[in-house]
Each structure stands twice: as C-alpha cells, then as structure tokens.
Amino acid sequence: MAFWSKWLGGKAEKPAASAAGYQPSGGGTLIVTSSELEDALRSGNKSDSGMVVNTESAMRAAAVYACVRLKAGAVATMPLDVKRRLSDGIRKDASDTPLWRLLRRKPNSWQTPSQFRRMMQAHLMLRGNAYAMIVRSVGPGRAVTALIPMHPDRVKCCQNDDLSLTYTYTTRTGRTVDLKQSEVFHLVGLTLDGVTGVSVLTYAREAIGEALAMTQHGAAMFKNGARVSGALTHPGKLGDAEFENLKTSLDEFRAEGERDGKAMILEEGMKFERIAMTSVDAQWVESRKFSRSEIAMFFGVPPSMIGDNSGSDSNWGTGLEQKTNGFVAYSLEDDLTTWEETIHRDLIADEESDLYVRFNRAALVKGDIKTRFDAYMKARQMKVFSANDVRALEDMNPVEGGDVYENPMITVDQPKDKPDDDSQAA
C-alpha cells in the first residue's frame, strides 16, 4: 500500500477516470489497494466461463493434451541428423563431433535426447518459449557438453540497449542468476516483439476454459444424475410427507449411478414417462465437438489426428497419407525449422560453420512399409538412391557393389569385344 501511495504522490485513491478501471498509456489496470491486487492475482488467469486456465489446468483438457502430445512426440522421435559440408553437394555424417553426441546421445546427465526434446517442445507450445542453459567445456574450442533445461516461468528475457539479450533465471531457492545470450539455448515460437514468444494459452484461454467448464459440467451431471430423464405422474395429490419419501427414494435410486438400468417399483398408480434428450443436451454435445476443433485450430493440428472425426478435414486431405503430409507441411514444419535454426545459432560456433543439423522428415512414414519401399524404388529408378543408401536408411549394413547409382529395373547389355584382325585371319 505504501508503494502505490508513493507512486501516486502520496494519494491513496484512484484517478477520477477509474470507475471502469483506469488504464495508463502502457495498458493494464492500475491497482491501488491490497484487495484489488489480491483480486487481480486470483482472477488473472480466469476465462469468462469462470475456469482458471494455466499450463497445469489446460493440460487437463483432452484436446490440449492430445495436441501437445502429438506435436511434442513428433519432434522428440524424429531423427535429427548432424551433417558436415565437405564441398558443394557433398555431405557427410558428423558423428565424431561433440554436437552429435549432445543431440543424439546425451543432452545432460539425466535426460535422453527424446525426453529433452519432448519437454522443450511442450514448453514451446504452452508458453511460447523454451530455455536451456548451455554448459561448455574448458579449453580451446569450448564445445557444448550439456543443455540444462530451465522452466520458462522462472526465466525473464530482456533486450539491452545494444540489442543483446540478457536472461535472469530464478532458482527454486529464490536465488537469481544472470546469463548472457551465449549461455542460453532459446526456442522462440510466434513472437510479436522479436524477442520472446507469445503463449497459446493467452489467446486460447476462452476456448480452453469453455472446454474445462463443459467437462466439469458433464462430470457433475453423470455423478449426480442431474439431467431429467423422465417424469412421474400421480393420479391424486401427494402430501408433504409422501413427497419427501418419494424424493428420498428417488435420490437413493439414482445416487452414484449404482442402480442405473434396474427396474423401479412405482406405487399408488404412479406412471413414469421418459423424456428424450432435450435440445439443451444436444447443444451441449455439439459444443464439446466445436470446442475440440477450436483448440486444435489454435495448435495447428488436424482435428481428426486428436480423435475428433466429426469434421471432414478437407483442407488437410482425405487419406491418412495426405493428412500426414499436410500436418508436416503446415504445422510441424514450423517447429522443425525453429529447432534447426536455433541449434545453428546457439550451439554451432562460427569456426564450425560447415556443420548443420536437419530433421529427417521421411521418418514419419516409417510405419507404412509399402509407402516407404515405393519411395525407395522411385528413388532408385531416378538414380537418387543407391542400394546402400536404402540399406543405410533401414539401418542395415552395406553390400558389395551397392554404391552404384543405376536403375535396377533396366538391364544394360555390355558390348562384346570384337576380335582383332590376326585372330580373324587365323
């Protein structure tokens, strides 16, 4: 309270324009009293549906969890190749470099490469940023030896006057650590200022909050039997005692759904009339379907890939292969490019500019053996792949004579040697 009073020049009241929430030139709401501060902290993440939407609660929404699991899993399991440019058009695996061991074997002392990439991609999707502290070796070259992930909520990124970046990390004990730009591996999603990414939860809060509210409503409805499934009619008039007895027996009958489907005994000529699904119930079911599609739209995922088959997904294609290609081209490619360019910027030194990394996009069709081998055959016919190239992609040892780039479907007859004149004379 003293801070706000001092900031206002010793006056502990709002300006005259604060009836509807005074906003200074920088935006936001001016908070004067401690109660207003508490209300802002409590309702800062609430949606109009009344549900608190943050990274923890959002993952309880099935559509959000499915989108994050799908894209993070794709980034985590797709092979990441580290290559070296030897000359124009000549590439070679750089498996002898510290970067290859870092990205393909051991990013830090407790995580596997897939665990590290899956967690960082989840941070990138939910918070717009993913951070990892860069640990370098001592000595010449200062190669990167480890990447220590940092929780995005504990990292603050600021741009200095010289346009360099400074990161402040708050540990679990409350101690702050200042890091230079060269000491942080920073993945940035969709950004509006060019420095930090924006969180999807900020813009999808209403859609996610609506999904959480409908899920909570559905759970309460099935738990308590809140939906009216029928009506009881009595030929006479019930007294207060009879009405309470009937109400108690009905509550016991439908409590927790234990007697659902069993017969109910009616007395004194009462009749039961079933009520079909109301328009409100039908609208609730349709709203849940629309909510899933809307959340999938925010994350750039085809609804059918998260289990929502109510739509046609015509923009992504009709078959599984077409949907996969559309998912890679219009959604996943953005994340893969972000990873590749960030690794090149933060983890590859200038003197190693011949190194580069690239995800193997073809691995997404690894499970479809027919499609995979059809692609191999076309590559062999076009002289793009040799037999040993195909065997290397299938993790098989090379064979003798398998490095020839010829169409295996065409047999070229070699010309026979012509006899010389002496042999003809003989």
Q: Provide the number of structural domains.
A: 3
Query: Total strand count, please?
Result: 11
**Straight-line N-to-C gap:** 119 Å
Note poorly predicted spans: 1-30, 276-284
- Spatial extent as radius of gyration: 32 Å
Task: Summarize the structure in words.
There is one protein chain. By secondary structure, the chain is of the alpha+beta class. It folds into three domains: 2-43, no CATH class; 48-224 and 302-366, no CATH class; 368-418, no CATH class. Helix content is 40%, strand content 14%. It contains 14 helices and eleven strands. The chain has helices at residues 2-7, 34-43, 55-58, 62-77, 98-104, 113-127, 200-203, 205-224, 240-254, 279-299, 320-346, 369-381, 387-393, 421-425; strands at residues 80-87, 90-93, 129-136, 144-150, 155-159, 165-170, 176-180, 184-188, 230-233, 271-274, 355-359. It has a three-stranded antiparallel beta sheet with strand order 2-1-11. A hairpin with a 5-residue loop joins strand 6 and strand 7 (176-180). Helix 4 (62-77) packs across helix 6 (113-127) and helix 4 (62-77) packs parallel to helix 10 (279-299). It is flat, with a radius of gyration of 32 Å. The protein starts with a helix and ends with a helix. Mean pLDDT is 74; it is low at 1-30 and 276-284.
